[in-house]
Amino acid sequence: MKYRVHCHIDQSSYQTVTFILFLLLLLPQLLCNVLVATCKINDRRPRNPKYFQPGDLIIGGIISMFYTFAHPVNFNEHPADEILDDLVHFLVRWTYLASIELLSTQRRVIPNYKCDMQDNTVAVIGGPNSNVCLSMATILSFYKLPQIGYGSSPVMKDEIQRVLFQQMFPNKDLQYNGILQVLLFFNWTWIGVIFISGDSGERFVQTVLPMFSQEGICFDFIEMLPFLYLITSITDMMAKWIEACNVVLNSTANVVLVHGEIHTMIFLRMLPQVSEVEDIPMRTKSKIWIMTAQMEFTSMPFQRKWDIDIIHGAISFAPHSKEVLGFQKFLQMRTLASEKEDGFIRDFWQQAFGCFLPTSMTENKAEPVCFGKERLEDLPGSVFEMTMNSHSYSIYNAVYAVAHALQSMHSSQWKHNTIMEGKRWKFVSQQLWQLHRYLRNMSFNNSANEKISFDKNGRIEAGFDIINWVTFSNHSFLRVKVGKTDSITVRDKMLSIFVDTIVWPKIFNQTQPLSLCTQDCHSGFRRAEKEGKPFCCYDCISCPEGKISRQKDLYHCHQCPEDHYPNKDKDGCLPKYISFLSYEDPLGITLATIAIFLSSITALVFGVFIKYKDTPLVKANNQHLTFTLLISLLLSFLCVFLFVGQPRKMTCLLQQPAFGLIFSVAVSCVLAKTIIVVLSFMATKPGSRMRKWLGKGLANVILLSSSLIQGIICTTWLATFPPFPELDMQSMSEEIILQCNEGSTTMFYCVVGFLGFLSLVSFTVAFLARKLPDSFNEAKFITFSMVIFCSIWLSFFPAYQSTKGKYMVAVEMFSILTSSAGLLGCIFSPKCYIILMRPELNNKHQLMKRNNQ
Question: Cα–Cα 20 to 30 A to 792, which of 217, 422, 430, 654?
Fold first, then answer.
């Protein structure tokens, strides 16, 4: 469209651009709420709405206002008929036609031909979609005509097009970073994405969404909507829209990012209808729509009475804007009577108020007649907004930018080439193409007291507002600013948002919504990825033993320090306590008490044997071995006290060698007694030579040789790898074990192994001598005692290996006590019984009598 504007550029108030400014501001309001159709004329040529005002300089506007479904030209009919039906003003060919009209003589569209001197188009404002701006630039750049785009900014590859094109849309990267920061701020990591097919949408998917993924955002779906115009038929396009609706409605993501254009709102408003038709649960009311700044509130005429609750609680980005004083008052004054010369307003009036304007050619219609006194402020917000939106604010600034650039150019370069004629002026030298240099360098304060300037790439230097949409039952809505993105702050500090002012969709009961594929893995748990699922879909499993996680959503748990252990919830570390078998421990007290009791019993037995040392029973089978065995058993009971209490260097050195030597003496005594029993029986036979082996000599040899071998093993152990006290922080999860390190496990098992060898030999000999006559048959008791002794120490090895800390020490103490008690009880209890309870049997006559029998 064109506007002829008579501008007194040298006046600072710029009052002469008021009409063009407000009319251009009004058009986005109409576009964002009501979409209307054009008409046919008799000469079979489409008549596009044209709006002119008198003036020497023209600010052109190429703005898509209509959206109807139509088929592409296929040349099966007369082209004029097909074009008449094709009213999709977002199409490229309509933008090309409008661009050529701006360069041609009024009402005579002839490329590269212009016969009048008045229609001087100095700049063109275009939008709102990126394809409109791009198509406009393709034509106008050839003529070096400055252009200003609002709404969605295109990506221009041609250098000339970039130089001549100014963008009232801030840097897109700032918007995408802002969206990312909003998602991260609310921890919305599971989202859906809708985008419009085309270069802009595909570039968004290929370049922006990977950046989102790197920051931890993953996608339930990425759904493409078809082009605004049709490739085949309306049926095919609607089928694709319904398919996309089904994907959205069945999604588990509560947040859906909509990367669309100005008409995408039509699609959103279709979702509730599709939900009813397809019998899908109404999940759209549980969606948080995040809309890009390219979008606006648009609708089709048949959507006028549709519910708008779907956008309640939505969050959108919009180029920063402020309310311009006087704009709302201007709208309140607009009536049909005040716009008689504006054909577009007539069409809008009929669509907006649901009435018709009678003409001489009008047939009787069912709709009421428009009286022309209807007021815009009476329309619901879904039909017409009375406030200035971001697109209107962009056009407002664009018009004043052109006016300021003209003023600057007039005051400098063209001052001497200008002839003033009263309040009108014209340029003798047609060099208006140079205006773009002044336009790009323009900086001024608008009437809202905001600075308007462009960066080196021709983009306006501004940030984005974050808008919260609030709807009402009367089909009206409010856009509430709840935050903004700063254009100069670093990315992680660019966002400021006021959470308390945000109104969420009603289903969330004003509680901040969540949008996660999996609920947070709390501290004490870690993430485990699900095969075939996006990275933000995972299982939460408890940290393994000994590890913790202090934060949410960690993929790995961390090990506690050596001297700490995880608490019950595995979200923190507690200091380990030092553990050893102490006298305060119930187990330590119990074993020490048993050791004292058995030591006392052994001492009593030893006392009895001392008292009755001259009796035949005590003298039998080598009295000295009996006393040595009792002393070694007493010492074995007492040596367990080396294992109780805090391990120290000396106690660690004495523990195992003392145990090994004492038990070697005890088992050696048992072995010697068994061998003497056998030899004694053999010596009673006539002519036997075994008498010379009897006596103290053989017993001493057996005792000393066995003890010497064990002593050599222990000495070697202490000389090479002596035991030492250590802190074991690994074996127990909650304890630091203070224990005696054996130094050499091999040497320890050598000591125990030699004891096992002596025990096995003693058991074998005793077993063979078990049927000797009763008077000499101590071998029976020795056999039984060695069975107990060997069983205990064979069980000792698996038990010792399977326990840790103080329980390992307790196992060894228990084995020492029980094996010693077995020897004491099996060998000496029968003798004590005879000595104390049956003294009449403790005489030589009785022994000889029993032997003869």
Answer: 654
**Given pLDDT bands bounded at 50, 70 and 90, which one contains residue 57?**
confident
Sequential DSSP letters for 189-210? -EEEEEEESSHHHHHIIIIIHH
What is the sign, positive or negative, of the torsion defined by CA atoms of 614, 618, 621, 627? negative
The pLDDT-based confidence of 300 (bands split at 50, 70, 90) is confident
Is residue 703 within 8 Å of 631, Cβ to Cβ? no
What tens digit of pLDDT does each residue of 445-495 get? 998 889 999 988 889 999 999 999 999 888 888 999 999 988 766 666 788
Coil, helix or strand for 277?
Answer: helix
Question: Could you identify the residue written with the tokens 């004490």?
Answer: 524
Show the domains of the chain with their CATH numbers. 4-170+325-453 (3.40.50.2300), 172-318+463-508 (3.40.50.2300), 525-572 (no CATH), 586-723+744-852 (1.20.1070.10)
What is the signed CA dihedral for 829, 833, 834, 835, rounded to 10 degrees? 90
How far apart are alpha carbons 498 and 482 in whole angstroms? 5
Q: Which residues contact 391 (CB under 8 A, 6 or more apart)?
A: 28, 32, 127, 128, 150, 151, 262, 296
Lowest mean pLDDT among 82-96, 163-177, 284-298, 319-333: 82-96
Q: How far apart are CA 824 and CA 828, in angstroms?
A: 6
Strands 525-529 and 495-497: what pairing?
Answer: unpaired
Say how far apart CA 434 and CA 413 lie, in whole Å. Answer: 10
CA-nearest of 587, 595, 582, 605 to 651 is: 582
Q: CA 794, CA 791: separation in Å to the nearest integer?
A: 5
How open is the CA angle 759-762-767, to the nearest 5 degrees?
120
| Helix (H) and strand (E) counts in the chain | 23, 26
pLDDT at 33: 36
Sorted by sequence, the CB contacts under 8 Å of residue 240 that are 6+ apart come out as 225, 226
Q: What DSSP letter does each residue of 656-686 carry, written as one string?
A: HHHHHHHHHHHHHHHHHHHHHHHHHHHHTST
Model pTM score: 0.67
- Listing DSSP states for 400-440 in one string gives HHHHHHHHHHHHTTTGGGEEEETTEEEESS--GGGHHHHHH
